[in-house]
Design brief:
The chain is α+β, with helices and mostly antiparallel strands and 238 residues long. The protein has a domain at 73-230: Cyclophilin (Beta Barrel). The chain has helices at residues 2-44, 93-104, 176-179, 195-202; strands at residues 73-78, 81-87, 115-117, 121-124, 152-155, 168-171, 187-193, 206-209, 212-219, 225-230.
């Protein structure tokens, strides 16, 4: 009798063990299936880099750190406020030196931001005021791995990668459009102070651009660079 009871108990223990193993295996299979689904979903989604500057006001009220204490700092004074920028001579020396030289000789004083594209950038530095002018010379490209994010100072150019001159732009935020500029336009600085001013200008009403009537990007009222000068990080003239 005792032998039969022991055999019966052993059989029940084995059966329970088999059921437990089966349930555990099924759970692992479901977990693996779920993990696979998540991985597939991630692979199918755009892997867009999202650095600081995704939101239009992300750096308003903040102060980005200075990249290199030896870099020159300039300030652009406008009717909407001032913008103070560090010029990255350690990244793009030719472009930084050109901007400093033109700043010292007053080239930018009185010029306008002739092109504003919402959520993209504001562009200025053209003596003609319509996107066709230059400083009388061109600069060789100095591409780097620095991304175009909110506050990035970069140089405008035509299809020729070595056609940059005096026209520059400042990015309003990080989007697919600005990300598409990475490695194709020369980043030569970044906004340290004046993000409120940058976005105030970037939100102005615009009309059709004479150079490209299909693009609504010419400010209805001129946005004048009253003065561009060498300064400290707080915008004080040197």
């Amino acid at each position: 009798m005792k032998t039969r009871v022991l055999i019966l108990c052993a059989a029940m223990i084995c059966l329970l063990g088999m059921l437990a193993c089966s349930d555990n295996g099924e759970a692992k299979d479901k977990a693996a299936e779920n993990d696979s689904t998540v991985a597939t979903a991630k692979k199918g989604q755009p892997q867009e880099v999202q650095p600081v500057g995704v939101e239009s006001d992300s750096l308003v009220g903040q102060r980005p750190t200075i990249r290199n204490k030896n870099n020159t700092i300039v300030t652009i004074a406008t009717d909407f406020g001032n913008m103070t920028l560090e010029l990255y001579r350690d990244v793009a020396p030719a472009h930084a030196d050109s901007f400093v030289a033109r700043t010292k000789d007053g080239f930018y004083n009185g010029l306008i931001f002739h092109r504003l594209v919402a959520n993209f950038m504001i562009q200025g530095g053209d003596p003609q005021g319509d996107g066709t002018g230059n400083a009388g010379y061109f600069l060789p490209a100095e591409f780097s791995d620095l991304p175009h994010i909110e506050g990035t100072l970069s140089m405008a150019r035509s299809r020729d990668i070595n056609s940059a001159s005096s026209q520059f732009f400042i990015c309003l935020k990080r989007t697919r459009s600005t990300a598409g500029l990475d490695g194709k336009y020369t980043v030569f600085g970044h906004l340290l102070k004046g993000y409120e001013t940058l976005h105030a200008i970037g939100e102005l009403e615009c009309t059709a651009n004479p150079s490209n009537p299909r693009e609504i990007s010419k400010p209805t009222d001129d946005v004048v660079m009253r003065k561009v000068y060498l300064s400290d990080a707080d915008g004080n003239p040197l």
